[in-house]
Amino acid sequence: MAEVDETPARFAQACQRSAEYPLTLLRTEAFSHQQNALQKRLGQEPVFHPSDQALVIRDLQENSSAFDKGQKLETVDQVEAHLVPEDKDPWWRFM
C-alpha cells in the first residue's frame, strides 16, 4: 500500500491554529524551548505595523551564516512567485 502524504492536511491544521505559532511549525530545527520562548515574545510585542500591508521574507540558506536582506512582497502574485515549488527550500525562513 502506498504511503499517503499528510503534509497538506497538517499544513491546513497549522493555519487554523496560527495563534499558536511557532509551535505549529511542520518542520523545524529549533528546539521546543526556543519555540516556546519565541511564542511568548511574539505575544508580548506588536508584530505588524498597522499601516504596513506587505510581507517581508528573509531566508537563511543552508551554507550561509546570515539571513539575506529580505524581500518585501506586496501582492499575492509576488508571494506566489517567491515561493516557487521547484526551488529548494531555505534552511530557515522568516515571513
The end-to-end distance, rounded to whole angstroms, is 37 Å
Trace the largest sheet across and list its strands: 2-1-3
Low-confidence stretches at least 5 residues in length (pLDDT < 50)? none
Helix and strand succession? HHEEHE
Structural class determined from secondary elements: alpha+beta
Q: Give the CA-based shape.
A: globular
How much of the sequence lies in strands comes to 5-15%
Helical residues, percent: 25-40%
Number of domains: 2
Count of individual beta strands:
3
What is the overall pLDDT average? 78
User: Number of DSSP helices?
Assistant: 3
- Report the sheet with the most strands, covering strand number, pairing sense and barrel closure: 3 strands, antiparallel
Radius of gyration: 15 Å
Task: Map the helices and strands.
Layout: H1 7-16, H2 32-44, E1 55-60, E2 71-73, H3 76-82, E3 92-94
Antiparallel strand pairs: 1-2, 1-3
List keywords for this structure.
alpha+beta, 95 residues
Could you please describe the fold and organization of this structure?
The chain is of the alpha+beta class. It has two domains: 1-47, no CATH class; 48-95, no CATH class. 32% of the residues lie in helices and 13% in strands. It has three helices and three strands. The chain has helices at 7-16, 32-44, 76-82; strands at 55-60, 71-73, 92-94. Strands 2-1-3 form a three-stranded antiparallel sheet. The protein is globular, with a radius of gyration of 15 Å.
